[in-house]
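Hi support team,

I'm opening this ticket because the web form for multi-chain structure prediction keeps timing out on my end. I have pasted the exact lines I submitted so you can reproduce it. The total is 943 residues across three entries, so I didn't expect it to be a heavy job. Is there a limit I'm missing, or should I split the entries? Thanks in advance, R.K.
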Amino acid sequence: MAFARFFVSRLLQAVPVLLGVTLVVFVLIHLVPGDPAQTALGPRATPDAIDALHSQWGLDQPLHEQYLLFMERLLGGDLGTSLRFGQSAGDLIAARLPVTLWLIVYAAVLACLFAVPLALWAASRPAALRDRVVRVISVVGLGVPGFWLGLVLIEVVSVNWLLLPAAGVEPGFLGHMESLFLPSLTIAAGMTPLVVRSLRAEVLRVTESDFVTTARAKGLTPHQIRMRHLLRNALAPSVTVLTVNVSFLIGGTLVIERVFGLGGLGDLMLTGIDARDFPLVQAVTLVLAVLVVFVNVLGDLAQALIDPRVEVQ
Amino acid sequence: MSRPDVADRRLLSVRDLRLRVGGEAHDVVRGASLDAARGEVVGIAGESGSGKSLTLRAIAGLLPTGVTVAGGDIEVDRVDVVKAGPQTLRKLRGATVGMVFQEPMTALNPTMRIGRQIAEAALAHGDLSRSQAKARAIELLERVGFPEPARRYRQFPHQLSGGMRQRVVIAIALAGNPSLLLCDEPTTALDATVTLRILDLLTDLVRDLGIGIVFVTHDLGVAARICDRIAVMYAGQVVEEGPTAELLRRPRHPYTLALLRAVPTRDRDIDGLRAIPGNPPQRGEELPGCAFAPRCEYAEPACRSEIELVPVDDDRSTSCRRHSVLAAMAGGHHD
Amino acid sequence: MSVSSSLSRTRVASWYERRSKRLRRRSPRGADASLAIGLVIIGAMMLAALFAGVLSPADPTRQDIPNALAPPGTDGHLLGTDALGRDILSRLLYAARTDLFVAVGAVLLPLVIGVAIGTIAGYRGGIVDRVVTGVVNVVFAFPVLVLLIALVFILGPGIPTIIVAVTLVSWVSYARLARDLVRRERSLDYVLAARVSGLPTWRILGRHILRNIIAQPVTFAMSDAVAIILFITALGFLGLGVPPPAPDWGTMIADAQPYFTTHWWLAVFPGLAICAAGLGLSLIADGLSQKWNAQ
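Hello R.K., no limit was hit. The queue was backed up. Here is the completed structure from your submission:
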């Protein structure tokens, strides 16, 4: 089937990028000024401890051997061992991944709930008052730092109004919905201006297409034109807009997790940084990059399902 | 200009149409008049910018945003298009007037199967069931020249060649059984052999279905092949109108003559081609009298005061006050 | 008369299309207003940063524990003092100096490097292009802030580190943009004409191609600057920013976090400063991109 073939070829295309990603993550530790083992263990480390770390990380071997070793472990599912926790980095990540994924999806959904109506509303009357209002909102919103907005929201909504929890994650689906609402809202607020802008342009482009004139010439009602012709054609570029912004989204969760004390991947990475835990930082970086590549593949697949032309290219 | 012999077959009447862009005081189309009847192909010829495409779109009530009717009447099958509300217009489109566009690639929805795009047009007006609409779409695909129409029904526009796409656009236009087909440069984006086949298809449709066609083109060769009558437009006005053969053989307007001289033919090599001196008028330029006068070798001072489309010979009209000079000239006999 | 004959063989956009384009070009609505307001905001902030020494009522690092957490309007402290009794207004002004300076470097360096690499890749094509495109795709796979944080952590704290880290992460956007633009431009007739006439490559690139494509990367740089300001302050907030005691808006907010409920001014003023810088840059970017779209 054509779709299966497309899926496989798109996965194959991701392989060189993934290889490049592992190379970058591998190189990170060699960018540390001086001896990374010394840096990690601190000034009072014994030479024996440093040597042990050298051989554990493979630093005593030639560079290409080190990379092969790194890849060998990686393919075997070994993301390294955390210095701070003395535990497999993979296990640590697996334990914290759900919160981060929750946050990403929640924020993306909220961002869509804001951005899609705003973009459609603005595009329905280009250059009219509503269009300019939306533009001002997105221009202003773009410059607001998420971590600060998060603090303000905690102060106003949680502390003053006593409405939602200020920190931590409550168990259960509803608990997640409630306790992750403010953090997701904060991330969505940063993402919405970006999405609104591109979405408005795409909707406008589709609205002005010739096939819409054809549809009008058929004598279809405006509602029929919107549902049958505009929607699907505007959907494909919208998916692209969302996947392009997923990198931004993940970066956002990192900081916001710290603001709300959520203990996800971002929090884990920052803990690793505080402890100068190189393997842990490398592992989290790698996982987040793989996540971006994965979302992009998914985005392309959605694209292929929506737009019959994609498969051919 | 009204022809009594076709009065009962009359489909379209455009009178003194004026179209305005934005809020500007100046009109793009300045008093164009046109008639079309069943079983007849009427061409509108002219350079880009002459207002021919806008005139065509006005007939279907499909003017681009920002362009408005500033005056005149359009009557299609006894419906006043200018005064019609959105509901009336919507019923008119598809059911009375079908439209064929210049770019068959962009005129089709890229994400919808071609069969559905045709069926949808059939469903918009008739009381068809879904399966009847599908049958009608397949029948139309066959009518416009698709072999294996049932299989083609499921294809997407990007899987077709330019000529086949244009056939789909024609099938869509025909789906609501219109009596008038508006064609906006339908062959401009196609190459020569495909153009011929599409023109043959349109001719067949006029013969078999008895519909009328208004055919906009900048290509006099194409117009000569398909049109029964031609209206030549310049700077937003119809400057000459008449039966194709007569008009091309003995033009009664210097602009038509100039257009013909700019066309390469078998007898005339490239050196014989003559470009029209000067440029078409700029927007906003005040144009009292004949708009072509500044570029015209026959112009006299009176040409710059006022003009009017007047009948000449049988069944023809021209806006040139010096048409008798053209007629008397030996050079007026073209080719 | 042959059928293939035609009056104009090239398809010309119909009249009203050309016209509506011209209409849009004439009045990119609000573009000039955006640009002007943005420039005024950023200009004022730049001046304030430049003359921080003159404008500051106090030394931004001088601690005054007895007068700690003084509310805004207290004698000599227009915007109050922080937990260590340092004057907030003075700290804001000096922080503007650090943050805006870092931002300028972190925008210009990737712009220059990215456009240079992208231009060469786009013009040379072949293996060079494939390598550059590959590297660009790999860097794009990382979430910007994640890679940035990892790099700053690895390279160690400090202003140069931040600028280098931002450059390593964000040159790719410019490289991709410049590469695509140059590839399109390279096949245009005027470039072919210049090549045929034997102009040296660097002249063609500098004189002809770069001049024609540069507007778009510069416009992008302005919108990128908004993100850069947010990234820099986020680094400060996470404790990876400019090392103390040099003030920085992000660090000020991080330090203020425990006092938010009781002493709001500690966190609100630096936050507003970031918002103002972000808004100014965002307005400039908006104005520029509208002008660009209109052309």
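A quick check on our side: Residues 89-273 of chain A form a domain with the MetI-like fold fold (CATH 1.10.3720.10). Let us know if the file doesn't open in your viewer.
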